[in-house]
Design brief:
single chain; 226 residues; globular
């Protein structure tokens, strides 16, 4: 068996562990929401289940790209199509961190600790889904184009993600709106970069995600240094 085959098997095993972990975390988050609905007889935070579905999309797309292109010597047009699709949906994963703003609407119908832990769990899920999908894409780019290009991509993605989260959280744009209203999204993005309050939000979100993902990268890939 070739070394590349061994690495591919290890990668598949690692992916299986990632999948199992985030499935368990997803089930935990959704079960908390279902329990809350049954306990309070309200659907106040039922939308979080839909947000989980959206957060899974970049992970699924990145997994498909990783599996189909793991043995390729260079990128192809089909990879860049998947990459573009992944980029459109990527902000949906870390976007769940900002859903904690809805904690403000908790009215005491259930323990505040319950809602806080629920939102915290959703935030962790979103961060993990985003980080894993980004690491899959970055690994492919590093193989084909080297470390400089892959880390430049890493930085640019976080900046675009910060803008995307602002567009979604504040201006209520959705990922698929890039296909139906691309002109308006570009205009809003440019205007956001010229607005002090919007720029502060984008900078804080980008910085937070960069720090979290760098820490996760250091913990996950510490064996690369050895």
């Amino acid at each position: 068996m070739k070394l590349s085959d061994n690495l591919l098997i290890m990668s598949n095993r690692q992916w299986g562990l990632h999948m199992l972990t985030i499935i368990l975390l997803s089930l935990f988050c959704v079960s908390m929401t279902v329990f809350r609905i049954m306990k309070t007889d309200t659907f106040l935070y039922a939308f979080m289940v839909w947000n989980v579905f959206l957060a899974w999309i970049p992970f699924v797309v990145a997994s498909i790209a990783s599996f189909f292109f793991a043995r390729r010597a260079k990128a192809s047009l089909s990879f860049f199509v998947l990459l573009l699709c992944w980029l459109f949906f990527f902000p949906n994963a870390p976007y769940m961190v900002t859903d904690i703003i809805h904690f403000y609407y908790t009215k005491g119908e259930i323990s505040l600790w319950f809602d806080l832990i629920m939102f915290f769990s959703y935030s962790i899920l979103g961060i993990f889904l985003g980080f894993l999908s980004l690491s899959y894409i970055q690994t492919l780019l590093k193989r084909w184009y080297g470390s400089i290009i892959s880390w430049t991509f890493f930085l640019v993605v976080h900046i675009l993600c910060g803008i995307g989260i602002y567009l979604g959280r504040t201006l209520r744009w959705n990922s698929w709106d890039i296909l139906t209203s691309p002109h308006h999204i570009v205009i809003d993005s440019v205007q956001a970069l010229q607005n002090t309050e919007a720029l502060q939000f984008i900078t804080m979100v980008t910085g937070m995600l960069l720090c979290i993902h760098l820490v996760l990268h250091a913990l996950t890939f510490r064996h690369d240094v050895a």
